[in-house]
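Structure ticket #2291
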Amino acid sequence: MAEEDLELVITVVVGADDEQQARVACAGLVDRIGGRVVQAGDCSDEEPGCWSVTICAPSAERVSENVAGALARSVRAFVRLLGDGVPMPRVACEPPTAWTVLDDPDALEVLVPGAERMLVESWVGGDPDRRPSEEVPDEPAEVESPSQTWVRLTLRVDVAAERRAGAEWQARAVASRVSNGGSITRVVAHDPLLSVHLDLGSSVNSPTTALHTAVSQLGLSDWSEMEETGDSATIRWSATPTPESGIVALEMTASVASTTEWTEPG
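Resolution: structure written out below.
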């Protein structure tokens, strides 16, 4: 098997007045890891006075046979690079990516002034959301029938986490494997778990086909039997053994949303 490159994608949430201040706060980290800022965004609607800065950097690890092992090692190597003051967290891995959340503002403050938390991801061949898309020949646009049936995909991620922010980051990382436009609709506390509910957008497939497709994108094994009730289908997954922190369980549902409307799949 030919070796493949890994790319690190680091997203830092930092307290700042504007984008320029957020970028300046992350400048030392960017230089330290030899990375580049690829995106900065205002997230004050979720956390007042906060900006997110996304940095891409190469990883020294390479993928040969053991994809999951290389992904996890690249995340751990990055955390070690940050210094002894940053504790090593649990790393989650579901190829083509592995990720962890650093949720210790005191430890991160030394690296990025004003940092609240940091999401560290490693991707085989780079984050697909940031790769240039391949050009394809134009095709005639399909005309959707006004009676087109579509389904809405929703996901619940149960996370063992002390803080809501950490649970949301991990849930978003899972959702990104299925949909680029997934959004959190609510977070419910079930001590000691936080259940993060997400809307993954719509699909023109049947509920069962939509779920089969989503499951294949997530890449996990040991899913439950699919349950069908009326115009909806649900499938579940649980971590075995149950971890003390991190993702504990997933529940994904596809429900027929309308027979007279249609929206672009997320």
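Closing remark: Confidence is low (pLDDT under 50) at residues 127-148, 258-266.
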